[in-house]
Amino acid sequence: MAAPMTPDTFVYDLTPASDPQVAPDGTRILYAVATTDRESGKGTTDLWLCGIDGGGAQRLTQGGRRNGGGRWSPDGETIAFVSDRPVPDNPGAKSGIWLLPLGGGEARPLTAHRHPIGDLAWSPDGATLAYTALFDPDDPEEEGRPEGAPPPVRVTRRLDYKQDNRGYLGDARLQVRLVDVASGQRRMLTRDAVDHNAPQWSPDGKTLAARVPNRNGMCSQLALLDVATGAVTMVGAEDGVVGVWSWSPGGDRILLAGDTTQSWQTDLFVYEVATGETRRLTDDLPFLPESGFPTISGPSQPFWLDDRRALLHAIRAGASGLWEVDAETGAAEAVYGEQATHAGLSVDRAGRYVVQGRASMGETGEVFVFDREAGEGRVVTRQHASLLESTPPAEWERFDVRRGDLTVEAWLLKPPGFDPAKRYPVVLDVHGGPNGQYGYSLAPTQQILATNGFLVVYSNPRGSASYGRHFTQQVIHDWGGEDYLDLMAVLDAVLERPYADRERTGIYGYSYGGYMTAWAIGQDDRFKAAVCGAPCFDLESMYGTSDIGHIFGDLQWGGPAHENPDWFAAHSPSFYAHRTTTPTLIVHGEADDRCPIGQGEQMFVALKKAGCEVEFARYPGGSHLMLRGGPPAHRHDFYARVCAWFQDHLGGPS
User: Fold this and answer.
1) Which of 373, 338, 334 is nearest to 352 (CA)?
2) Are the C-beta atoms of residues 119 and 197 closer than 8 Å to each other?
3) Are 189 and 177 in contact, with CB atoms under 8 Å apart?
4) Residue 384, SS3?
5) Pairwise CA distance, residues 93 & 273, whole Å
6) Strands 424-430 and 500-510
7) 3-class SS at 157?
8) From CA 450, how far away is CA 436, in angstroms rounded?
């Protein structure tokens, strides 16, 4: 009999491949593999190399615990990567750039910093590497604090002084630097106290295009950086968004996906370098170009196939796809798509092979190759084939629920060996955002619950991304309104089935999903158990304490509470928590700057005062993204605790 998935499966057993990069000549693939040791609880990442068909896989790195960000030199003879291995003659360095010659020989250090290095980019001639690293104007030489000195007093005059997953920033920001490959001499190209991300060289090597987020990442522009002088030309509206971008082969244009305001849906634009004019190509793309996730992953940059057409990776209805877009008209033609979630976009020089990371309902952490010439795609690694054979994922089906003029897409997970003659407890899982989306991947909490005897239902209610601007805008100024009714309609559709036990239903959500969980149990007592992760509980305090609250609240809720107190009262779970009866587990990272720990604390006190059964699990040092990068022991505890709560309060199949 197949074993169910457990917290061990996702924390210790998986060895996911990520960030695949195809060689310029299309013959080989460079990628990173992450492992976690059970005994020490420490993770290690190493670089691997395989053929374009996945054959001949070999490990490239041996030293250090963090080796990643690998990028091919233009001639394909050298790999630049970032490592935390010790750097000779620089004992204080925590992160360094290393060069590995593929013709033979050991990797050599090029440059190093006390702060993490990221976003490596080779110049077209291979003579220079651009990269990003934190620059602190209060410690320009990276000397650090004297041993034994108390922490410095923190004084700020800017709203974006902190950011989730990074903590207190002050004026320290990511700056673009250049390092000469031959000599190791480096210089800092940018100095403005704003972040600069993912620098991309122009074809002539004279300019770099980097994304500059503002309003704590809620908005962004493109900065064109003159390599010789450091002069900056800003592209895009200050309160707009830049998602992905790419230079045309001639360097005269930049194709970008963005918007003139933050609408949570980007469109296509072309920037004319000579005139400085930006031309809008589309008004409402039916898909969402994949722009990465701040502090976690970079954008899937478009690839120009010729002087007019570009290849774009985007998400439509929770699934990844490839589109060819016309840089003159904005017309888009689907090239490839299936029920899977991909990450990144690496294309060989000839434009034949497209390489991406991949997850689906039956696999995760693999490398995917699409052959444009053959029109076929396939997974070329087998990181988890044997593991998922012995611990198979949940069975699944997709269904729709119609409400008014909108169709809500939903999925139902069933335990392996599902028996329709039995009655199963049901858990509704709500995604974050609210302008996020669920789709085709192995989500740990969902799979652990489903393979341990629960029906798990999840959906993309109005407000979710990847369905176009109209759909994703429907949640604005209506949190807890029609979005909540969409979710209840999806749940009711499942509960009509004879094998779904309506007397044993639970709800789980994290972030905005935590908001919806707190909201739902304050509106109705239909749920017999709830797990509320990192919730938005009191929107008034959230506005002033979240790292993005001061701009996110303006965009989503219409402004601060004093401008519309009735709306805040009507839409905050804190105003209804006193009537909650559902047994609730609150799980929250103590270093969460996105939905600060105070939100969980307020909810715990409100439920405790209401006489409700409530438990509060706090994870020291945990950011809002703790489930992506927190200590393995904390992630393991989180998954185990969530599953145990529902098992204790809902039971198993009957």
Assistant:
1) 373
2) yes
3) yes
4) coil
5) 39
6) parallel
7) coil
8) 22
The residue whose two tokens read 């429907």 is 474
Burial class (CB in 10 A: 0-12, 13-18, 19+), 237: middle
Based on C-alpha coordinates, what's the Rg of the chain?
25
Q: Distance (Å, rounded) from C-alpha 218 to C-alpha 594?
A: 12
Q: Match 């790195």 to its residue by tokens.
A: 61
- Which H helix or E strand runs over 567? helix 565-571
Convert the pLDDT of each residue in 504-544 to its tens digit: 999 999 999 999 999 999 999 999 999 999 999 999 999 99
Task: Quote the CA–CA distance of 473 and 155 in Å, as a whole number.
Answer: 37
pTM higher than the cut 0.85: yes
> What is the three-class DSSP state of 444?
helix
Amino acid at 164: D
Contact at 8 Å (CB) between 303 and 345?
A: yes
Task: Write the pLDDT tens digit of every residue in 247-284.
Answer: 999 999 999 999 999 999 999 999 999 999 999 999 99
CATH 3.40.50.1820 is the classification of domain 387-650 = yes
Instruction: Count CB-CB contacts under 10 A for residue 149.
Output: 8
CB 334 within 8 A of CB 275: no
Q: What is the pLDDT of residues 581-593, one digit of tens each?
A: 999 999 999 999 9
Cα gap 49→67, rounded to integer Å? 13
> Which pLDDT score, from 0 to 100, does residue 1 have?
63
Mapped onto helix, strand or coil, the DSSP state of residue 551 is helix
User: Which run of H or E residues covers position 484?
Assistant: helix 482-495
